Amino acid sequence: MYQRDDLAYGYGAATAVLTLDAALPTTILIRFQRWRDRLGERATDLELVTDLGARIGSVEWLRGLATCAALCTGAWLLAPGFRPIAAAPQPGFTESHWDEARAIGIAPLAYGGDTGRRMGATDAVLPLGETPERPSVDLTATLGRGDGFTRVLERAGVAGVEAKQVAAMVAGAISVDEIKPGTRMNVVLGRRANRNEARPLDHLAFRARLDLKLAVERVDGRLRLQKVPIAVDDTPLRVQGIVGSSLYRSARTAGAPAAAVTDYLHALATKLNVGSDVASTDRFDIIIAHRRAETGEVEMGDLLFAGLTHGTRRTQLLRWAKDGRSQWFEASGVGESRGAMRMPVNGHLTSGFGMRMHPLLGYSRFHKGVDFGAAYGSPIVAATDGVVAFAGWHGGHGNYVKLNHSSGLATGYGHMSRIAVRPGVRVRQGQVIGYVGSTGLSTGPHLHYELYKNGQAINPNSVKFTMAPLLAGRELARFRGELTRLLAVRPGAALSPAPVMASAETLKKKG
Ligand SMILES: [Zn+2]
To answer: What is the whole-number distance in angstroms between the Cα of residue 13 and the centre of ligand 1?
Structure first.
């Protein structure tokens, strides 16, 4: 086909010449055109690329075979072939070069430099009886996780007796267990009488707490403890802003740490559906425990308050410890904790409660729970406090855990890849009870989650019930006081440039 097209282009060119250039004799052009026509006819018949798979044995086929063979032979004859390239021979080492190379090599130095370039030790060299010692050793010791205070000192070279003495002194100022792992200690060890005993501790300084620096000094041969209080501003960090396209991203951009934002979302999830109830125009309000020392160190604490303003509706949740467990309490609802069921897995709803076509069985069947799609191995947590009623293989549920809760409620968790609890064990809300899998009748990793009320399966999404550890009396008053205190915090106050003055006063009040 391309041959014909090429010729058509040729005609076009010839006609163009004819119209444009009238100076050429017309007869020549006509003859040229005839010649082109004949060539065109022939070229149309000529098949340059022969299909060797068709019409085997015909003249065209034989010609095609001959062309193919000729091309192959040509290619083979033109192949360059491989021939080794001659290179200059490597010049050998002379005797002196060899000595020099050996003198600066590593092995001769280890043997004492026997090449003549460096002198090896002879009998004229007397070994030193004792190298002089430094008058003092300055070092940094770090308290590891699960480490002991005395052990750190002993590791640094302090004698056991002295380490215990120092630990006792420090324990007088602060509980030794309170010192955080990773704390660095500056240790200075002094001169000793002989090598067979440990160096005495001359100086020890470390940050025992954010607001306290401790130093142990040797004065006139006796150790003395020195306490240096550091002013700390504990104004909570308040972050506010507009939700925008992503609540998480907006809160992070506004300056809230990642862990606090995650806690915030979990807190909100106990009250509303974060996916659908939050609009981009809503305002978030996050308060986090925050401590700042005058020396510049910052300690971020827990999330204290989670707020969201949705038009006129206002969600305000305050973290409050009740019966030794901190929970989220609604500020407006007079300390009532509501919707205390927690999402059992970090995933999204893939199948709801009710009649549906079963993906594996292929017929319509009642779905007794909801399905959450989640990555294989994601942790599954108890929706609320309870006792493990069943943990093991349960037919189509695969690896299955059932928890009994208070007021006739029970929850079931199916298709787990692994179970992390045993029957009869008491579990707390948020405790990991297993991991997402695809055991039993399942098409892929997901959590099948069921909620039972007096043995009847009910829709987990429809239930908003009160766990009701209500606050009352004195506790309620304290709760309200704390809420007022937190809401009085100005956003960004914790980061303002002069917080130390105020905190010095609070320190005085405390001490
Ligand atoms: Zn299911």
So the answer is: 74
Segment 222-280, tens digit of pLDDT: 888 888 888 888 888 888 888 888 888 898 988 888 888 988 888 888 777 777 778 88
Cα 448 to middle of ligand 1, angstroms = 4
Is 482 or 468 the better-scoring residue by pLDDT? 482
Q: Give the residue from 365, 320, 364, 291 showing the smallest Cα distance to 479.
A: 320
Measure 351 CA to ligand 1 centroid, in angstroms.
Answer: 7
450: CA distance to ligand 1 center in Å?
A: 8
Is the pLDDT score of 74 beyond 90?
yes
pLDDT of 3 above 50: no
Q: What is the Cα–Cα distance from 435 to 455, expressed in whole angstroms?
A: 25
Same fold, 233-337+472-511 and 348-466: no
Which pLDDT band holds residue 469 (cuts at 50, 70, 90)? Answer: low
**Global pTM?**
0.46
Which architecture does CATH list for 348-466?
Answer: Distorted Sandwich (2.70)
Sequence spans of domains, the chain: 1-49, 137-229, 233-337+472-511, 348-466
pLDDT at 360 > cutoff 70: no
* Cα 422 to ligand 1 centre (Å): 22
Question: How many angstroms separate the alpha carbon of residue 378 from the centre of ligand 1?
Answer: 17
Q: Has domain 137-229 been given CATH number 3.30.70.20? A: no
Ligand 1 mean position, distance from CA 267 (Å): 26
Q: May I ask the CATH architecture of the domain 233-337+472-511?
A: Roll (3.10)
CA of 411 relative to ligand 1 center, distance in Å: 13
Q: What is the pLDDT of residues 361-372, one digit of tens each?
A: 667 778 888 898
- 365 pairs with which residues across the strands? 356
Give 173-180's long-range contacts (Cβ < 8 A, gap of 24+): 173/208, 173/212, 173/214, 173/225, 173/227, 174/208, 174/209, 174/212, 174/214, 176/149, 178/208, 178/209, 179/143, 179/149, 179/206, 179/208, 179/209, 180/143
Please determine, for residue 336, whether its predicted confidence score (pLDDT) is greater than 60: no
Which residues fall inside 5 Å of ion ligand 1, going by CB?
Answer: 371, 448
Between 445 and 9, residue with greater pLDDT: 445
CA of 457 to the centre of ligand 1 (A): 12
**C-beta separation of 408 from 352 below 8 A:** no
Q: Separation of 433 CA from ligand 1 center, angstroms? A: 18
Residue owning tokens 């709801």: 352
